[in-house]
Amino acid sequence: MQTVQPVKSKKIDSSSVGVTSGSIARSENRGVYATFLKVGNRGLKCYNSPESRDQHYRYQRTLANKGLAPYCDDCVDMTLPDGSVKYAYWSGLAEVAMDRYDGELFVNNEDCRDLKARLGDAGYDWHDDHSGNWGYVNGRAVLIDCSGY
Question: What's the rounded Cα separation, in Å, for the pair 100 and 19?
Answer without folding.
Answer: 26
